[in-house]
Amino acid sequence: MSGHEPEPMTTEDALQQWRAAERTVAIARRGRLAAEAAAAAAAEAAKAALATADAAKNALESMALAERSAAKTAEAAKLAALSTRADEADATAELGIAEVDEADAHEGYRNASDRAQAKGS
User: Fold this and answer.
1) pTM assigned to the model
2) How far does Cα 102 stand from its chain's mean position?
């Protein structure tokens, strides 16, 4: 060793070092707070992304269910329409038969009435 001790710092130099260290600590604290905020925001974004994915999955399942339900409803409507057409055809046929029966009965009445008048004359 040389026997020389380093010169002690002056008050001005010590104050400058202290102020520089304070600035460094303040910057580091702000950086840590920003990093913590970013990490919290990223965690919330991940939760939101999972919730959105679940919602999309549920919407897709609901859409598929609605599509199946609509197809069943359409098939039921088709069957109802076919059944109604068959009922209409049956009713039309029954009406035709009833009209023929009514015409025959009317003719029978007219014939009976004519015979009754012929006997009475």
Assistant:
1) 0.49
2) 59
